[in-house]
Amino acid sequence: MSINSDQIANFVPIIGAAVYRYVLNADTENPLHVQYTLNFFFLIHSLTIAVLFYCRTLILASNDGPTLQIQGSSLSTKQYDLSVLRNSFMLAGISVVFPLFLFWNFGQVLPLCFSAFRAPFNALLSPLFRIYILKRESNATQRPFKGSSGGLSELLNMKKLKKMAKEMQAEAAGNAPAHQVKAATRKALNKRKVVKA
Predict the structure, then answer these.
(1) How confident is the model over 51-103, as pLDDT tens digits?
(2) pTM of the prediction?
(3) Which of 58, 70, 167, 176 could, after both became Cys, cross-link 172 (CB 3.0–4.6 A)?
(4) What CA–CA distance (Å, rounded) separates 155 from 53?
(5) Using CB atoms within 10 A of its CB, is residue 91 exposed (0-12), middle (13-18) or buried (19+)?
(6) Tens-place pLDDT, residues 37-60
(7) In this structure, what is the dihedral angle of CA atoms 18, 20, 22, 23, given to the nearest 10 degrees?
(8) CA distances (Å), origin 127, targets 5, 44, 141, 179
(9) Of 60, 50, 22, which Cα lies nearest the Cα of 124?
(10) Cis peptide before 144 (omega within 30 of 0)
């Protein structure tokens, strides 16, 4: 019996409800509950990182594949997959470090639970997991992947838009009143929202 990533996605609401119920009913002041939560957190993230390392091993063992043209640069399929995997590792690291920071500095247990819930699904539903571990290629796994780098690409895109807005502001500064420059800046930033929707 093989597991499809769509079947995995069907369990997300069930597991999410279980995590939410645990968070609501758990006594976060009880050191035993906190220890269980930490153990679960480290177990889940260790397994997630192990899956990412296994995926890295499979990528390194694969052939280079065809060359892809992405944003003016040419990458082999292996190089592209490794760059996407690098982003996955970075997101996995952030999902470990940030909740631990909140826990150790502020005693917040809730971010540990939600991070432990979210991290494995990010790895299991990724196109690299489908290609290299499940051995399934489809239209959804054609490179370049859509939304493969998640929030980081959005952040970089936002930086580009802000840079464009500043350039427009500098260009218009010489011959336009300040309120028109601010309106042009707002229009450039709102353009992102329209494109995303």
Answers:
(1) 999 999 999 998 877 777 777 778 888 888 888 899 889 989 999 999 999 99
(2) 0.64
(3) 176
(4) 26
(5) buried
(6) 899 899 999 999 999 999 999 999
(7) 160
(8) 9, 20, 5, 46
(9) 50
(10) yes
